[in-house]
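User: I want to check something. If I give you two sequences, will you return the structure for each one separately, not as a complex?

Assistant: Yes, each is folded on its own. Here is the first sequence with its structure:
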Amino acid sequence: MIDVSVIGCGNMGGALLTGLSRAGGYRITAYDVDPDALEAVSEHCDRTTTDLGDVRDSEVVVLAVKPDIVPLVLEDLDLRPGQTLVTIAAGVSRAQVGAETDATVVRIMPNLAAETRAMAAAVSWDDPDEHVGQMLSDLGAYVEVDEDLMHVATALNGSGPAFVFYLIQAMQERAVEEGLDPDDARTLAAQTFNGAAETVLRSDRDLDSLIDAVCSPGGTTIEGMEVLFDSDADTAVGDALTAARKRSEELAGADAE
């Protein structure tokens, strides 16, 4: 049983709490200054609190607050060597957090799929942390990256779900225009992305080969793919990722000042 506290019960903090609760094997404390936020996650926690002192004995403390709130929390968060402080704040380095705590600092970039235990996460640490590794595995899949690549990870797997939701919505809306029921179109579009992603993860073939496998000569798929090949859709998606990466760097610069 791993004793975990999550500071901040907004969208991402709530997703982590929900996923850990569903995984089992965790004693979970949720902290927030907003009683309504605590009420929203209470069913997934062993304890909720508005007293920061209640999280100080946890083996792992997850700092799931916005970057500008991090310094305010660290002022009052007194952790010891041997504890682990996990930060998910975009643009806030481990060095910045480590200067304000005696705990071992691990930085992760998770995403909202933590709630359904299908999360993609990036982690940066000096040495692998057994408890954090277990948590990330229980919530989905993770990769280790150098901290200077966290800006890219923030854009890719952190912001990426919104980009995917946008594409699912575009497919759903056009299918509805073509006559499908909205709920049926939503299910088919979402499950298509889900199945395609699983295929990528479980296949040894590269993406070009997988595209070719769906495209029969003269068939429907290649007709649609020709529209994409002739468009700048790949550039637009790439530009969205670059814009998110640049914003992460801007946030880091602002926090360092």
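And separately, the second sequence with its own structure:
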Amino acid sequence: MDKNMNVDPAELAKFSELAHRWWDPESEFRPLHQINPLRLDWIARQAPLSGQQVLDVGCGGGILAEAMARQGAEVLGIDLASKSLKVAQLHALESGLANVAYREVAVEALAAERPASFDVVTCMEMLEHVPDPASVVKACADLVKPGGWVFFSTLNRNPKSFLFAIVGAEYVLNLLPRGTHEFAKFIKPSELASFCRQAGLDLQGTRGMEYNPLTKRYWLSGDTSVNYMIATRKPA
């Protein structure tokens, strides 16, 4: 692997070990299965997906990519975890989805190869796993067409998010494997907004995501203190 590539080998190894469990809704990826309809609906309400060219950056096993393909989009999912991509490809084949494809390529490399090629770019739960998140944001901005949408989701960095996303989710409720997240890599909304502005993206809105451990229910709200999503648009 290119030592200059914007990737943490330990993060790749972590997700590769779990790759065979991506599509098990009761596995470590259960939270992603549960929040996927919320994310999809929020994206689709702002950027209708049918007939659009869509890129999913850090697609993992393809949970969001497949969901967007089912909405009628032509989807390309990219990731650097080979095992996860193999799982994604196999699941798409089993599902009979011809309008989703996958590639093992860095987002920066794809941006150099295919600038301004996509109507919508999504990058969910990925920025907190790379050494240089600003580089990913810039590449996403380069990949989207003028007037197109770019969506990000990540974790805020504050005492509450440490308590909820690491102590609560990984150690108390066992929603995620221990070591899934590193607090120092969490990104404040103001930081992500700055990355977006520097990349030439206009902010369109944010949403927070909350979880009730008693009802085991997720919902979107205006509270961005832990999990949050941000919608941006490239000027036409």
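Because they were folded independently, the notes below concern the second chain alone. Residues 147 and 235 are 5 Å apart (CA to CA). The domain at 9-233 is CATH 3.40.50.150 (Rossmann fold).
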